[in-house]
Design goal:
Elements: E1 7-11, H1 19-26, H2 35-43, E2 53-55, E3 57-62, E4 65-70, E5 73-75, H3 86-94, E6 102-105, E7 118-119, H4 125-145, E8 150-156, H5 158-165, E9 170-180, H6 187-191, H7 196-211, E10 215-220, H8 226-244, H9 252-262, E11 266-272, E12 278-286, E13 290-298, H10 305-320, E14 325-327, E15 340-351, H11 354-380
Parallel strand pairs: 6-8, 13-14
Antiparallel strand pairs: 1-3, 2-5, 3-4, 4-7, 5-6, 8-15, 9-14, 9-15, 10-11, 11-12, 12-13
Helix pairs in contact: 2-9, 7-10
Length: 389
């Protein structure tokens, strides 16, 4: 059978791709792969050549018909990716080789699993696999032609990751911690599945906040006032500055843009004291099945406030709205004691240099063994009386 012939081209801004096409290929349920989200990153200049994230989105066509789209960025550093390859970059440098620029397929600053290539709805599974195979070949040639060291597809769906494996990429696994809703009726029902000691620890943490007489209110993103958004940005920037020495990857312009264009997918948590003064704020996104906790900040310190605003309030919201999964962000073994399960994440990699490619493939294979052991250890530490399946 004659192989299909595809055409590939790069565009340096998502505005060159129709929003209707992009969202038809990726859907609008997952907030971070929406055209509106990626466009807000570019329009606010959070993503740009100046920040080390140069858009280079891939458009795949067949005979003039659009069939595939993939978010891509030329990177001159590894910040904001959350699949850590600093050791790889250092190894390149020790051998007088350039690791940057590289190219990534990811959602900037957003370590959540999702589609990393969107397909035309009319494609069959076999056709999708063929597209991925030929995209892989195209990327390999581009690494040579454009002097990119490597390509990295980060936080892919397992189903799409498996398709990439068929095109001979390097597979890398990671671990995050997500809360799962097992049909709980309320927070107490959730706690009832825990051992007595773990349940008491959580109740003790929440009691600290109750004594502070703080009020927690979720506001839909498109209904939040400019003052409420300004308050969130102030919290976010102050906390980032204290923790990292800068005001965060994302700007006030970005938050206002996503509020204006996809506010129905956002929940802004406002934490106020008895004098109606803002104390802290957290930003959540929702899909049909998931709650995503992304950013938070506080203006004043309260014991247990981070856990309450970023975990317990999210769990309560997920239960009340019958959401299946609460993804509260990357890393965090401390989440396990609060009922979050270890889950695998999937990334794919193509390294231009064959020697380094072989070495990195061996490293990732060994790392997978350690990830498996780590997940077993974390699962054994879950606070439930019997592990919920």
């Amino acid at each position: 059978m004659k192989a299909a012939v595809y055409q590939f081209r790069f565009v340096n801004t998502i505005s060159e791709i129709k929003k209707s096409d992009w969202n038809a290929f990726f859907g609008i349920s997952h907030p971070f792969t929406r055209h509106e989200y990626l466009s807000a990153l570019e329009l606010s200049h959070c993503v740009s050549p100046n920040t080390g994230w140069q858009p280079q989105h891939l458009v795949v066509s067949q005979g003039g018909t659009l069939i595939g789209l993939m978010p891509m960025y030329i990177k001159t550093h590894s910040w904001g990716e959350y699949v850590f390859d600093w050791a790889w970059a250092e190894a390149f440098e020790r051998n007088q080789l350039e690791y940057y620029p590289k190219i990534v397929t990811s959602i900037p600053f957003t370590p959540t699993t999702g589609q990393r290539i969107g397909f035309a709805p009319f494609l069959s599974e076999n056709e999708k696999q063929d597209v991925i195979n030929q995209v892989g070949q195209f990327i390999r040639q581009q690494l040579v032609d454009r002097h990119w060291s490597s390509w990295h597809g980060l936080f892919n769906l397992q189903s799409q990751h498996n398709m990439w494996l068929n095109s001979s990429v390097i597979s890398r696994l990671g671990c995050q911690f997500h809360w799962h809703n097992h049909g709980y009726s309320d927070f107490n029902d959730f706690l009832g599945n825990m051992s007595s000691r773990k349940r008491k620890n959580i109740l003790k943490e929440r009691a600290q906040i109750q004594q502070a007489q703080l009020r927690f209110t979720f506001v839909e993103g498109d209904k939040a006032s400019p003052e409420q958004w300004q308050g969130f940005v102030q919290c976010y920037q102050r906390t980032y500055l204290k923790r990292s020495g800068h005001q965060g990857y994302l700007s006030a312009d970005f938050f206002l843009l996503v509020a204006a264009t996809m506010g129905e997918s956002i929940r802004l948590l406002l934490v106020e004291n008895s004098q109606n003064q803002l104390v802290a704020s957290a930003l959540y996104f929702i899909s049909d099945s998931h709650l995503y906790g992304r950013y938070w900040g506080a203006l004043t310190e309260h014991d247990g406030l981070h856990f309450e605003a970023c975990y317990y309030q999210g769990i309560e919201y997920a239960i009340a709205n019958q959401l299946s999964v609460f993804d509260a962000g990357a890393q965090g073994e401390h989440k396990v004691a609060r009922g979050f399960y270890p889950v695998l994440t999937y990334s794919s990699h193509i390294i231009q240099h064959q020697g380094f490619g072989d070495a990195i493939a061996d490293f990732c294979e060994q790392e997978q063994h350690h990830i498996g052991l780590y997940m077993q250890q974390m699962t054994a530490q879950l606070p439930y009386k019997t592990t919920c399946q």
